[in-house]
Amino acid sequence: MCKCWHVLLAAGLILLATVLVPALQAHPMDEQNAAFVQAVEGVAIFPFMYLGAKHMVTGYDHLLFLVGVIFFLYRLKDVVLYVSLFTLGHSVTLLVGVLGNIGANAYVVDAIIGLSVAYKAFDNMGGFERLLQVRPNPKAAVLVFGLFHGFGLATKVQEFTLSETGLIANMLSFNVGVEIGQILALTMVLIGFGYWRGRSSFQRHAFATNAALMTAGFILAGNQMLGYVFYS
C-alpha cells in the first residue's frame, strides 16, 4: 500500500478525533485572537491579514472541500479557474455578511459546508452519473458552495463586537489573508498530489480516498447539526 495512502488514513483518523470533541464549532478563533479583534480601534491591516491566513490554514472544512475540488484537476489553468470561482464566492459572502451585518445560525451554515465536502467527494466518485444519471455543473457547484464557505467565515467574525472604525479596511485585509492562507495550503496539497499522481496507487486508491472524504464531510455536517439541536 502506498505510503501516501497511510498518510491519508492517518489524516482521516485525526480529523475524526478532532470533530468529535465536545466543542462542536468549526475552527473558532482562539481566546487571544478573539480578544485582539474586539479590542481593535481603527485600521489594522497586517494583523487582520494574519488572522485571515491563520483561519484558512486551520480551517479543515474549507481545506477538505478544496482537496475535493482539485482532486482530479491535472492542469494548472483548471486549478486556477476552480479556485478562482471558490474565491469569488467566499469573498462576496464574507464581505457582504460582515459589512451588511447579515446573520445566520453558524451551526446550520457549517453543516452545509460539511455537506459541500461530501458533495464534491461523491461527485469525484462518479456518484451522480452512476446513481442519478445526471452530471451537475462542477463550476457552478464550486461557486455556490464558495458562497456558503464565505458566509461561514462571516458568522465566525460576527461572533465578536467589531469597531466600525476601519471595519471595511480590516475586513478587506482579513479576506486578503484568507486568500494568502488558501494559496499556501493549496501549494502544499498540489505538491503532495503531484508526487502521488505519478504513482499507480493514485488511481487504485482514488475512489477509497474520496469515500473517506465524503464520510468526513458527513461527520462534519452531523456534528454541526447536533450542535444546532443541543447548543442553539
Number of domains: 1
C-alpha Rg, in Å? 18 Å
Overall pLDDT score: 85
Count, helices: 10
Order of helices and strands: HHHHHHHHHH
User: Roughly what fraction of the amino acids lie in strands?
Assistant: under 5%
What distance lies between the first and last C-alpha atoms, to the nearest angstrom?
44 Å
Provide the structure class. Answer: mainly alpha
Biggest β-sheet description: none
Shape: globular
Report the strand count.
0
The unreliable regions are 17-25
Helix content: over 70%
Overview features:
232 residues, mainly alpha, 10 helices, globular
Explain what this protein looks like in three dimensions.
By secondary structure, the chain is mostly helical. The protein has one domain (44-231). The protein has ten helices and no strands. The chain has helices at 3-19, 31-39, 45-57, 60-70, 76-99, 106-124, 127-132, 138-157, 167-197, 201-231. The model is unreliable at 17-25 (pLDDT under 50).
Can you summarize this structure?
This protein has helices at residues 3-19, 31-39, 45-57, 60-70, 76-99, 106-124, 127-132, 138-157, 167-197, 201-231. It has one domain (44-231). It is 78% helix and 0% strand.
Secondary structure topology:
Blueprint: H1 3-19, H2 31-39, H3 45-57, H4 60-70, H5 76-99, H6 106-124, H7 127-132, H8 138-157, H9 167-197, H10 201-231
Helix pairs in contact: 1-10, 3-9, 4-6, 4-9, 5-8, 5-9, 6-8, 6-10
